[in-house]
Structures are given as C-alpha cells and as structure tokens.
Amino acid sequence: MTTALFSHGACLRHDTGPGHPECPDRLRAVLARLETEEFSWLDRREAPQASLEQIARVHPAAYVQALLGAVPAQGYAAVDGDTVLSPGSGEAALRAAGAVCAAVDAVLAGEVRNAFCAVRPPGHHAEPDQAMGFCLFNNVAIGALHARARWGLRRIAVIDFDVHHGNGTQSSFADDPDLFYASTHQSPLYPGTGQAHEHGIANNIMNLPLRPFAGSAEFRGQVTDRLLPALRHFKPEMLLISAGFDAHARDPLAQLNLLDEDYYWITEHLLHLADACAKGRVVSTLEGGYDLGALASASAAHVRALMAG
Ligand SMILES: [Zn+2]
Known about the structure:
By secondary structure, this protein is of the alpha/beta class. Helix content is 38%, strand content 15%. The chain contains 9 helices and 10 strands.
C-alpha cells in the first residue's frame, strides 16, 4: 500500500491578490517537487468538493452560506486584513475541505496506507463562525468529524506543527474529551492564542509554545518529552496532521529555525505512534509555509517520511 496525494487545480484559482504570502505559487512549488522521480509511486487523486453536510459538522450553516455568498464574481472581497476572497475561492475552499474527507475515506477503506492533501486555502485558523488568517474552512477539523460520522471512530487526534497556533482547531476540539489537539508554535506570534495553560475540557488540548529563534533541539525536545507521551496516553484511533512548514528557518513570516530533517523526523515518529495505537491511520493536510523553496523541500521531506512509514 502506498501514500495518496490529494489535490485539485481549483486550489490554484483561489487568488489572494498581488504580494500576498498565501499565493498559488506555494501550491505550485509543492506539486512540482512531488512530480519528481522519487515520488512517482504516490497514488494521485483529485480532491472532491466537501458537501455542506460535511462542513456543517464544524461551521454553522449560516456561516457557510454567508462565506460562499461573499465570493465575488470578479475582483476581490476582503474578509479581514489578511483573508481575501476571489472568484475561485469558493470552489478552492470546498476542495480543500473535501480533500481531507476523501483522504480519510481512502485510508479508512484500506485503499492507501496514509495520505497528504496538497491544498489551499489552509484551514487551522478558521473558527467555527469566523474566517481568519488566510483560512476559510477548517479543513482538518472537518476531516476529523467526517471520520467520526462516516466511519464511527470516536477518538481522533490532530497534531499541528505549523509555526502559528491553530486557534480554530482548538476552538472546535476544546469541549470534546474524545478529540485531542496538540500544537507546536512560536509564541509570541499571530494569532496570540495557544498558551501552555490552555488545556481544554479534559486535558485534550496541548499547547507547546516555542520562543522566537528556537530550533531543532527545542522542537524535538517538546515533541519527545511532551507531545508523544500525551498522544500515547490519549490513544487516538486516527491521527490527522496540520502540516504547516512555516517554522522552517527560511520562512519569512516567523522566527523558528526548523530544517527539512525535522519534518522528516516528526513525521516518522507520528507514523510509529499511529502504527502502535491507530492501525497506522494518518492523514496530513497542508497549512502554512511561505518561502517557496523551503516549503517545497520541507513538504517533500514530510511526504518522503509518509511513503517510508
Ligand atoms: Zn502558519
């Protein structure tokens, strides 16, 4: 069994405007790297559009209607200072969330060993009723609740190594003791949430803030000493990864100093843990990463580890 790669051309047609860091070239850079010889065994699949039923498990129907209704026929519509809609944004957002749901289906049906969703817009900042931070729908949370509704899983964990805290995912998970969210992120940094004392209703939220300029040693220490033991204790039935690559040393939006090999390392450890308690079930989805070269090489390291797992 192999690793699936879910993506869709519509994710390139979410246009955030000139000079915006969350640009279509990000996804082009990731996909170009995954076209090279070593990735020829990937099982490449088109991301379907998420259904409104799937999205409504995380976002109120009124929010979904208002967001899709705000998509302009031409030009741009600003949701906030960072978050922009263009004519292609509605379909891109539906495909990004649909990719994670379809990846969950492919893994749980036993068609593939694990999966990576190369999609945009990203999702982890999207609150149930608020788009923000380049995010429209919370793709990973929608995927987690889909795994429950469609496949009857109960205990699901999301690991988020994007350099920013996934405030939206935490909001969606904090009150449910059978959902676990763990995040490594730079602090202080946007969006300002993710303090170490935010634990959720049943210690089901684990925030591991890292100081600016922290690098591999601090990151690996937190993952080894805190994250992996907590995950083992939680015993998830499936693992989802919010794979942002903006903690990379070359990223322009933050000041952490991770390297490509750190992304390989954490992916390998998460796969081992999933093998031990979650029948190896892992679905990963792209979040941030704004240096095109670092994004391509770090996401390649991540997918290389998924394929080796
Ligand atoms: Zn980020």
